[in-house]
């Protein structure tokens, strides 16, 4: 499957009706999701026939992309039951099999998944409302993934993340520098949309 084809398919993914600012819910665009998963699959062979977890799965677009690219197993984790409901409906519409776990990743015990997930993909909250939550997600993902973690983070945090990766004994590679287009979704937004510079990172387990 070509990248453009994957992006086109993912455009049909339904997004949040009423996004919740406390969870920093911004939908991952088809543009970003397709590039993340396509690269993970074609360049690193981390998706096809692999068990893939999606942290902060939201409306399920990353898990759906993983499924389309031939993931052997997919599971999404999210704190918001309304998001999981949309994700389930999306999975049904795309006719893909995805398990969803309703949990707070900040405090969840995920021992039952230890050794069961090869790859974890995520577009975590950036930590603007809940300081440090992005790093909590990342540390937990690295502990759980067997092979690799793919994640989006603000480019401004790159140095800090590289330092943490070293501390945690994992490799960290900037796969791409991307623009995250945040549309006007919340009352405090003054502009129609804002582009945030983000790094698409791959963390490899040694």
Q: How are the SSEs ordered, and which strands pair?
A:
Blueprint: H1 3-10, H2 30-42, E1 51-55, H3 61-68, E2 73-78, H4 81-94, E3 99-102, E4 119-122, H5 133-144, E5 148-154, H6 158-168, E6 170-183, E7 193-205
Parallel strand pairs: 1-2, 1-4, 2-3, 4-5
Antiparallel strand pairs: 5-7, 6-7
Helix pairs in contact: 1-2, 2-3
Binned strand content: 25-35%
Average pLDDT figure: 86
Number of strands: 7
Low-confidence stretches: none
Distance between the termini: 30 Å
Largest sheet, in brief, is: 7 strands, mixed
Percent helix, as a range, is: 25-40%
Structure report:
- The structure is a single chain.
- With 206 residues, this protein is of the alpha/beta class.
- It has 6 helices and 7 strands, in the order ααβαβαββαβαββ.
- It has helices spanning 3-10, 30-42, 61-68, 81-94, 133-144, 158-168; strands at residues 51-55, 73-78, 99-102, 119-122, 148-154, 170-183, 193-205.
- The chain has a 7-stranded mixed β-sheet.
- α4 (81-94) links the parallel β2 and β3.
- α2 packs across α3 (61-68).
- The mean pLDDT is 86.
